[in-house]
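I hope you will forgive my troubling you with a question about protein structure. The full record is reproduced below for your convenience:

——
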Amino acid sequence: MKSKFIHIKATPAGISIVLRADAGKQQIGYSAAIRQLEEGHYDHYLSDGLRVVSEIAQASKKGWFKQSDEQAVIVWRWLVACLFIDEQLAKHGTIDATKMDGTTEKAAVYRGQYGGIVIYPATERFALANHIEGMAFERFSAVKAHDQIVKLYQHMAEADPLNGNLRLSQWGRESLAILHDGFIQKVNAEGWPETPTAH
């Protein structure tokens, strides 16, 4: 979808955003921006979310904002989920997916070794939190777990040598393929669970 932003910039007081469609200008605090990422505010505007993440990073670099450990996990989880969705969109495009209410919408799709599945930013974040973060909290104390999770997510991304943009690393790509292939394999063997389960 087309960006809602005309201009976005980190400032000492927060992120200054000029919106399209005469919606004006808004200032949002860094913690509020991170909450918006987590709550799915940018799920239909991933490029805008990436710009928000970039401005949060700029503010951190300039000393205007210090993320808590939990906020760092939220930002990196959002970023990895976004990179995965973007990669799958580039590889496989979209399909018309039927929603619970019977209507259809365009959605990204993952196609792997055992079949394909529709993917959404929210379900990707849930899968990362459930599988990757869940294992870290089982193995480490809360303080150490946050640090380990951020490091894991950072290893799942890398700068593209051609343009400097972030993309999934080979390890990140393989890890997410294993996660999704495992889910698809389970559904193929056992069918869909009775209650909806996000993956």
Summary: The chain has a mean pLDDT of 90. The beta strands are 5-11, 14-19, 25-28, 94-98, 104-112, 115-119, 157-159, 166-168. The chain has two domains: 1-66, 68-199.
